[in-house]
Design brief:
Layout: E1 7-10, E2 14-19, H1 35-43, E3 48-49, E4 58-64, H2 67-79, E5 83-91, E6 98-108, E7 113-117, E8 124-136, E9 140-147, H3 154-161, E10 183-191, E11 198-202
Parallel strand pairs: 4-10
Antiparallel strand pairs: 1-2, 2-4, 3-4, 5-9, 5-10, 6-7, 6-8, 8-9, 10-11
Length: 207
Amino acid sequence: MQPTIPILLEDDSILCCVKPAGVLSQGANGAQPDLVRLLEAQTGGAIYPIHRLDRPVGGVMVFAKTQTAAAALNRQIAAGTLEKRYAALVHGDVAPESGVLEDLLFKDARTNKVFVVKRPRKGVRPARLSYQVEEKTETASRVAVLLDTGRTHQIRVQFASSSHPVVGDRRYGAKDDSDVLCLWSRSVTFDHPDTGERMTIKQKEPF
């Protein structure tokens, strides 16, 4: 039985939903359908992906329902006006409590793993995010993150490189027993492709 995807907003041009953790955003070739196929089956119409979330990451995503809307949203991504905010629970005491992380990232296509590197070279791309610590425990910090760039595994890699891997992210150095990757797409802000209205679609993290 396929999961029912929670839909937060839908009209003739866009669809905003909550991606379940563990579901591929798009492009599945195996027996398990990706989110695009699930949404098309659920709504009975075409769905055009605009952005991605890593498979183990859940939270808010926005999709287009027409090619015109897709083009408009993609222009916002290119212009940097589509804002993606995340919540993450990371190991350790993050200090300072607010700041910017800037790194050079290289993706190894063979292993689908990303690394922080020191020098520009072929395949290396700059990555930038802003963060604010919201609360702390004895072992972890909850941070709100605003992505300025959208690189593969960006939040996971940048915090791991700062000695604060995301809880549950054993791929990037977390040593814990969590079965959940504690990274969540908390909100997406964009201009509606038809009306121009500035919209923020939110869903609080479950951890």
